[in-house]
UniProtKB/TrEMBL annotation:
The keyword Transferase applies. This is Aminotransferase. Its cofactor is pyridoxal 5'-phosphate. Keywords: Aminotransferase, Pyridoxal phosphate, Pyruvate, Transferase. The keyword Cell cycle does not apply. It comes from Roseivivax lentus. Residues 36-384 form the Aminotransferase class I/classII large domain. Its EC number is 2.6.1.-.
Length: 398
């Protein structure tokens, strides 16, 4: 066959895409083996029936043709109103582009920010698709490592040094953070904003977990001084409204930038189905109470995890400040995150994500998704803790 373009052939940099344990767990489950999956951020509840009824009514009412590429006027206005209320920054419909999920928004944001070959910074550890998304946009993915001892919070001096060394054009941050659960405090975000201004960077802020904060307060960097004109905020209906399969996200940014992003959408996605947009509009109008209801199980399971794992030998639960995940430090077992996850799957039929799937900075850790019912979750954590204790005892004897 003819050659494949490098931006696609080299999207994973010749390495893993980070999903091996997930794929193996799904294959085991498909073969009939009982597996407790604590891998991906998929709710154990489904989309609220009222939202599905709104989607059905819209489709049956005829909103099945081409929808407005930037998003329906009503949905763009509702997203703008939501963002303005939460950030205090003036936001109108022309600041909003509706996208087929946050993943498409991340790709579009990097296409806007980065000329071919330009460096794009991201914080390590990160959501697994970040480096590949950057490479698919023909940019160079440059990780900036964080340390578990510092709560995986990015250091402004390290960011500035990386930007200066590479001539970076963008910086991608994510708070509340997947995979670490960190909620960036104001001081950290002020440092990030300082670097973005000093190095003339586009700041791409992934805020899909904004409604899942268990400790601290979510602050969008777009709300900081001098940042609204250089920040692209990524949002989504997936996590806060349990609408992962609907694929409805957005970008909020300067009007001029959004106008160019609409041009990109016109020649790529050509918009989002109208009946899905109408369902999203209905869901947003349900207000904060609905989001709180969706988030409640994760807050409850966080408390379960703290009780079960507080004094567990062989592992350490990092502070879970936000999002639907737990990050466990398992270095005392003497195993890598990948070896721990594979061993746990083989012996306990429990699937978790290796820290290495999210970057080198998360080596020796595993990520646990809080996405099964409480009783099954507690049982899985107890068996995971027993596995870690056994392996740490072996490591101490070796």
């Amino acid at each position: 066959m003819p050659p494949i373009a490098p931006r696609i052939a080299e999207m994973n940099a010749g390495g893993s895409d980070g999903w091996e344990v997930f794929y193996r767990a799904r294959a085991m489950a498909a073969s009939g083996l009982p597996v407790t999956e604590l891998t991906i951020g998929e709710h154990d509840i489904r989309t609220d029936p009222a939202i599905l009824h709104a989607m059905h009514a819209s489709a049956m009412g005829g909103h099945t043709g081409y929808a407005a590429v930037p998003g329906t006027p009503e949905l763009r206005a509702a997203i703008a109103e939501r963002v303005q209320a939460r950030t205090g920054i003036a936001t109108g419909p022309d600041n909003v582009l509706v996208t087929p999920g946050a993943q498409a928004a991340l790709f579009a944001a990097h296409m806007l920010a980065c000329p071919p070959g330009a460096a794009a910074l991201y914080v390590d550890p990160c959501y697994t698709t970040y480096p590949g998304t950057i490479r698919a946009a023909s940019a160079r993915a440059v990780p900036v490592a964080t340390r578990p001892e510092a709560g995986f919070l990015p250091d402004a001096d390290a960011l500035e040094a990386a930007a200066a060394q590479t001539g970076a054009r963008s910086l991608l941050v994510n708070t509340p953070n997947n995979p670490t659960g960190a909620v960036y405090p104001r001081a950290t975000l002020m440092g990030i904003a300082r670097v973005a201004r000093a190095c003339d960077l586009w700041l791409i802020s992934d805020e899909v977990y904004e409604g899942q904060v268990w400790q601290g307060t979510h602050l969008s960097p777009r709300a900081l001084p001098g940042m609204s004109e250089r920040t692209l905020v990524i949002g989504s209906m997936s996590k806060g409204h349990a609408m992962t399969g609907a694929r409805l996200g957005w970008i909020v940014g300067p009007e001029a930038a959004v106008a160019h992003l609409i041009d990109l959408a016109t020649v790529t996605t050509y918009g989002v189905p109208g009946f899905i947009q109408d369902a999203a509009l209905f869901a947003l109008r349900e207000g904060p109470a609905h989001e709180a209801q969706v988030a409640a199980p994760f807050a409850r399971r966080r408390r379960i995890a703290e009780a079960v794992l507080r004094d567990a030998p062989g592992l350490r639960l990092l502070p879970a400040e936000g999002a639907m995940y737990l990050m466990l430090d398992i270095r005392a077992t003497g195993l890598s995150g990948a070896a721990f996850a594979q061993g746990l799957l083989e012996t306990q039929r429990i699937a978790v994500m290796p820290g290495e799937s999210f970057g080198r900075a998360a080596a020796g850790h595993v990520r646990v998704a809080m996405t099964v019912p409480d009783a099954a979750f507690e049982d899985a954590l107890r068996r995971l803790a027993s596995f870690a204790a056994d392996r740490s005892t072996r490591a101490a004897r070796a």
